[in-house]
Design brief:
This protein is mainly β. The chain has one helix spanning about 1-15, and strands at about 20-25, 30-35, 45, 55-60, 70-75, 80-85, 95-100, 105-115, 120-130, 140-145, 150-155, 155-160, 165, 170-175, 180-190, 195-200, 205-210, 225-235, 240-249. It starts with a helix and ends with a strand.
Length: about 250
């Protein structure tokens, strides 16, 4: 059943969002008529600076030339993404986000109509206050590089998108600073009471072969908005982490 659903979703995603049909006028001349137009480039507004650990709300809106309903995907610039449900053309949407680390971020928003046509991306620069110290942990970095911003079919990236859709097994890959000695891979517990380590790698390159179907009553490993977190440590147990969300089938 899961394979059938996966094939259906894959086929739906790969159907071109813009189709053409041939029509003829009274003289018998044939031409092409566009059936679907992408939404206009969204406008995004919200705070452009703030404090880490504080939630901030952003508003986006666009119109669709065909009057189609649209959904919005927010890329927060820190490895986290969020996609809304479908909204009517011209209806404003709001989304909130909390940045965990100081720095400069670019919020990117794209609108997609119900037929799959995507708009141009809109961006907004956001700055969290920067603080400098001699703490060795400041030199640590970790980032999930796969899966990221694409549709993956059994470990192969077949289409770039904003956000992550994973169909079947996938090898999770990260990019880590040289001082990292251990990386834990964690999934969200179904109870909402924390995360559970599902794999640990102690040698670079740090990877995890995600090929196990976990108990749905214990861990969230399939569906929409599946969170994946990696925690990395150096030899002094200084910690840094990264997280993404995805559709996992």
């Amino acid at each position: 059943m899961k394979k059938a659903i996966a094939i259906f979703v894959l086929a739906a995603l790969l159907i071109p969002s813009v189709m053409a049909i041939n029509v003829s006028d009274r003289d018998g001349n044939f031409g092409s008529t566009n059936l679907n137009n992408p939404p206009e480039k969204p406008t995004i507004s919200g705070p452009t600076s703030g404090e880490t650990g504080t939630s901030y709300t952003y508003t986006a809106v666009t119109t669709d030339p065909d009057g189609d309903r649209v959904f919005y995907c927010f890329d927060w610039g820190d490895g986290d993404e969020f996609c809304t449900n479908l909204y009517n053309s011209g209806e404003q949407v709001t989304a909130s986000h909390t940045w965990d680390s100081d720095g400069d971020y670019t919020v990117t928003v794209k609108a997609t109509d119900e037929n799959g046509a995507e708009s141009e991306p809109a961006t907004l620069k956001v700055s969290m206050p920067l603080t400098y110290s001699c703490n060795p942990a400041d030199d640590l970095s970790i980032r999930i590089t796969k899966p990221r911003n694409g549709i993956y079919f059994h470990d192969i990236k077949i289409l770039p998108i904003i956000g992550q859709i994973v169909i079947g097994d996938v090898t999770v890959e990260v990019k880590a600073s040289d001082s990292i000695q251990r990386v834990d891979f964690l999934l969200q517990m179904t109870c909402g009471c924390g995360r559970e380590i599902v794999h640990t790698d102690t040698s670079a390159p740090f990877t995890w072969d995600w090929n196990v179907d976990y108990d749905d009553e214990e861990l969230i490993d399939e569906g929409r908005g599946v969170p994946l977190t990696v925690r990395a440590y150096d030899g002094e147990w200084n910690e840094v982490k990264d997280s993404i969300r995805m559709i996992k089938l």
